[in-house]
Amino acid sequence: MNLKKYKRAFVVSIVILLVGVIAYILGWSTLLTVKQIEITGTSSQAVISNQLASKEITLTPGMKLARVDIRGINRSLSEMKWLDTYSIKRSWISRDISIAVIEKTAVAKAKGANSQLLYFDKNGEIFKPISAKQIALQSSLPLVISDKNEEADLAEVALLLAMLPDGFNELLAGLDGISIGKSGFIVMKSAINGKSVRINWGRADHVAQKIKVLQALVKLPENKAASNFDLSLPTSPIVS
């Protein structure tokens, strides 16, 4: 009976010792410290590093690998609206911390409150350009103009862009400009089949129906030379 107790006590002691050794190696030993920090997918690594620092997230070579705040980094990156996707990896073997990001790509620009420059991505999400790559696109992006200059108008455009199907990538690729009148109607200047067109979407409602109508209209032989499509009333479209 005593022998069993001794064996049990011995096993418990070994387990406690192993846990202590592992905890020491992970938290205090220099055996598992960060060897390298790599940020890929953007030339604006300093922007990301500064954002992490502003959140009091420590990320430096030589720090304990186990003490890297992966959740905190994830949370901080999620607040960077100029990023499309991101991932963080901690390698216990190479002792590297890898942050891989993909920047959002703008398809149009607008001026928000206080003339602040805003971008729209292909999903209709509005974001402020941050990286050098995004800022460099400023002069080449088509402008979204609102007669009322209200944020609500920009939200309507964002909704429209978000609902355009993948088959309409040509509209985004050939986008020349978007304007919103006082009526709230959205007018897009773009290209279909290499030809310049003007599309009056009306308001950003019944978008799926309007897209189907537009797809049907452009296929009709009699509309081959058409350059104006008024879809504000999808049940009674006007083509000229």
**Which CATH class of the largest domain is shown?**
Alpha Beta
Beta-strand share of residues: 25-35%
What's the main sheet like?
Answer: 9 strands, mixed
Mean pLDDT: 85
The total tally of domains equals 2
How many extended strands? 12
As a whole number of angstroms, the C-alpha radius of gyration is 28 Å
| CATH fold category name of the largest domain | Rossmann fold
Q: End-to-end span in angstroms?
A: 99 Å
Number of helices: 7
The succession of helices and strands, N to C, reads: HEHHEEEEEHEHHEEEHEE
Description:
With 240 residues, the protein is an alpha/beta fold. The chain has two domains: 29-103, Ubiquitin-like (UB roll); 106-239, Rossmann fold (3-Layer(aba) Sandwich). 34% of the residues lie in helices and 26% in strands. It has seven helices and twelve strands. It has helices spanning 2-27, 45-54, 70-78, 132-136, 151-163, 169-173, 207-219, and strands at 36-40, 83-90, 96-103, 106-111, 117-121, 126-127, 143-146, 177-180, 186-192, 195-202, 228-230, 238-239. The protein has a nine-stranded mixed sheet with strand order 6-5-4-7-8-9-10-11-12. The longest helix has 26 residues, at 2-27. The radius of gyration is 28 Å and the shape is elongated. 21% of the residues are buried.
